[in-house]
Amino acid sequence: MYRNDKVIRRYSEPFKLKILAELTIGKHTKSELCKLYSIAPTTVNVWIKKYNRKDLMNTRVKVETKDEISRIKALQKEIEQLKKLLLKKDLDA
Questions:
Q1: How far apart, in Å, are the Cα atoms of 67 and each of 6, 7, 74?
Q2: Is residue 19 a contact partner of residue 56, using CB atoms and an 8 Å limit?
Q3: pTM of the model
Q4: Nearest to 54 by CA among 23, 22, 84
Q5: Are 34 and 44 in contact (CB under 8 A)?
Q6: Nearest to 24 by CA among 59, 54, 49
Q7: What is the mean pLDDT of each run of 10 residues along the chain (93 residues)?
Q8: Where, if anywhere, are coiled coils annotated (predicted)?
């Protein structure tokens, strides 16, 4: 009996390029293709990197306004003050 039942799959070069082509034209999303062909999303990401197709990578854009940034800084400052108060209280007790 095998220690783990992991199946190693090898995909042909034309198959990989077909998947990337379908992603490029927008015929299917990455998750749809993964389900359709039973491919792990990380495998598709490896192919995207291998063939230098960064345009197909999912990108996350984090937008913060000045108000959000100042709010975060104020909260961080408050956390530090509370930590100091808690430490002082523990030392006094």
A1: 49, 50, 10
A2: no
A3: 0.53
A4: 23
A5: yes
A6: 54
A7: 70 92 88 93 90 72 80 95 93 80
A8: 65-92
Please state the three-class secondary structure of 28-52 as a single string.
Answer: CCHHHHHHHHCCCHHHHHHHHHHCC
CA distance 22 to 15: 11
- How many angstroms from the chain centroid is the CA of residue 45? 11
Query: What is the reported pLDDT for 60?
Result: 63
- Reading the block at residue 72, the tokens are 């975060």
How many angstroms separate the CA atoms of 9 and 48, rounded? 17
Token look-up 């990578």 returns 57
Q: Which tokens is 55 given?
A: 């345009």
Residue 27: both structure tokens together:
């015929």
